[in-house]
Amino acid sequence: MSKPIDYRALAEFRHQLRIFLSFSETNVRKAGLTSQQYQALLAVKGWAGPNSMHVGELARLLLIKHHTAGELVARMASRGLVRRTVDPTDNRRVLVTLTKKGMDRLKKVAGVNFKHLGGASSAFSKVLKLIARTSG
User: Looking at the domain that runs over 7-135, which CATH code has it been given?
Assistant: First the structure.
C-alpha cells in the first residue's frame, strides 16, 4: 500500500526552489550573464573539473539540443567566457574550457549563490526530511 502524497511538502519544496532560482537569476543578471550562460559555466567547471568538456556533454547536462549548446558556446566564446578547441582524440568534437574571465564571473555568481543557499539550507532540510518520511 502506498503512502499518501504530502502535497504541502512538495509545494514547499517547489517554493524554496523558486525563491533560490529567483535570487540566482537576479544575481546572474547583475554579473552581466544570462541564466543559460551561468548554467553552462557551472556545468563546465563542476562536471569537467580541470579537464575539458565537449559540447555534446554540455548539451546533455543543460537538457538542450546539441546545436543549441554549440550556439551558446559560440556566443560565450565571442564574449571571452570560454575557449573552444578541437578534441585531439576526435576532431568531430569541440571541447569547451573556461577562460580566466569566465572563471572570474563564475566565482562571483557562484559565491553569492552558495552563500544564499547556506542561509536557506534549514528550510530545504525541513522540507526534504518531510518528503523522505512521506515517501520512504
Answer: 1.10.10.10
